[in-house]
Design goal:
Elements: H1 4-17, H2 25-33, H3 42-59, H4 69-83, H5 101-107, H6 112-126, E1 130-135, E2 138-144, E3 150-154, E4 160-162, H7 164-173, H8 189-204, H9 214-226, H10 233-244, H11 248-262, H12 267-282
C-alpha cells in the first residue's frame, strides 16, 4: 500500500518546484513519474541529464556562449539523436511512458514535448540557449536568440532542422494560425507542464482505455491544480473524477466549491454542477 505521507511529501515538493524561479522543469517532470512509481527518486534522472550534457559539452569546439545556433543544433542532434537515440514514432502516442520523463530517459522514446524537455534541460546545463516552442499539434525547440539568430529543430525526429515555413505548415495542419505573431515564442515552464499533464489526461480518458485509468487522470488533474496558473474548470473535473473513483463526499464537495466559484458569472452552469453534486451524495444511500 502506498504511504499517504510519502504521497503528500511528493505533492508538496512538486508544488514547491513549480513555484520556484526559475522552475526546475526536469525535477517537476520526474515528480510526475513518482505518481506512477512511488519509489521513484528524481536523482538518477537528473544525473542522466547531467551525463548527456557532459557528452554535448565534449563535442563543442567553442564556449557555449560563442557557439553558432546551427553548430549547437548539430551537436545536440549528434549526441541526443544519433548517438543516444532519442526520438519518437506514432505508436508512442498510445503509451503513457512517452509522457513520463524517467521513462523517456530510460527508453529514449517519447512524445515531442518530453523529448524537447530533454533537449532544453541538456542545453541549459551546458549553457546553450535552447527553448521549447509549443506549435499547435507538435512541440519543437529553438536554439539561439528567439529575438535574433536562431534555428528550429525537431527532437521527435532526431533533431531534424526545420525552417520557419515548416513550422507554419505544422501549425496550419493542426488547425492553428500560421501567421500567429507568437507562434515561435519560447514556451514558459508552467505552460509546458500543463501541456504535458493535458496529454496525460487525454490519454487516460480515451474510451478505449480501461476504466481504472480514471486514477491516472485524477492525479494529472490534481498536479495541474498545483500549478500557479491553471484552468478553473479542472476543479469540476477533479470533483467528477473523485465521484468516479468512489469518493462521493469528496467529489460532491469539490463540485459544490466549483459551483460557488462560477455562480456569479454562469448561473446555469452552477446549477448543473450542483445537481451533479446532489447526485453524488445520493449514491451514498
Amino acid at each position: 500500500m502506498k504511504d499517504p505521507n510519502d504521497a503528500l511529501a511528493r505533492r508538496a515538493r512538486f508544488a514547491e518546484v513549480v513555484r520556484d524561479d526559475p522552475v526546475d522543469l526536469a525535477e517537476a517532470c520526474l515528480l510526475m513519474g513518482a505518481e506512477v512509481d512511488p519509489s521513484l527518486d528524481p536523482g538518477p534522472g537528473l544525473a542522466e541529464l547531467d551525463r548527456l550534457a557532459a557528452a554535448v559539452a565534449a563535442k563543442l569546439t567553442a564556449p557555449a556562449e560563442d557557439t553558432e545556433p546551427t553548430r549547437a543544433a548539430a551537436v545536440l542532434a549528434l549526441v541526443l539523436g544519433a548517438r543516444a537515440g532519442f526520438g519518437g514514432a506514432q505508436a508512442d502516442y498510445a503509451d503513457l511512458r512517452s509522457s513520463l520523463l524517467h521513462e523517456v530517459l530510460r527508453r529514449r522514446r517519447g512524445l515531442p514535448i518530453l523529448l524537447s524537455v530533454v533537449w532544453t534541460e541538456v542545453g541549459r546545463r551546458v549553457g546553450l540557449p535552447v527553448h521549447g516552442i509549443a506549435l499547435p499539434g507538435h512541440f519543437v525547440v529553438g536554439i539561439g536568440d528567439p529575438d535574433g539568430d536562431f534555428v528550429l529543430a525537431d527532437p521527435f525526429h532526431g533533431g531534424r532542422l526545420l525552417t520557419v515555413d515548416d513550422a507554419r505548415k505544422i501549425a496550419a495542419g493542426a488547425g492553428g494560425s500560421p501567421n500567429d505573431p507568437h507562434l515561435l515564442a519560447p514556451a514558459q515552464p508552467i505552460a509546458v507542464l500543463l501541456r504535458i499533464l493535458n496529454n496525460i489526461r487525454a490519454w487516460a480518458q480515451n474510451p478505449a482505455q480501461a476504466p481504472e485509468r480514471a486514477w491516472t487522470r485524477l492525479w494529472a488533474v490534481e498536479l495541474s491544480l498545483l500549478l500557479p496558473r491553471h484552468p478553473a474548470a479542472l476543479r469540476r473535473e477533479r470533483g467528477s473524477l473523485l465521484v468516479q473513483t468512489g469518493d462521493f463526499l469528496g467529489g460532491a464537495a469539490e463540485l459544490e466549491d466549483f459551483a460557488d466559484l462560477v455562480g456569479a458569472i454562469d448561473r446555469e452552469l452552477a446549477a448543473t454542477v450542483r445537481r451533479e453534486a446532489s447526485e453524488a451524495r445520493a449514491r451514498l444511500n
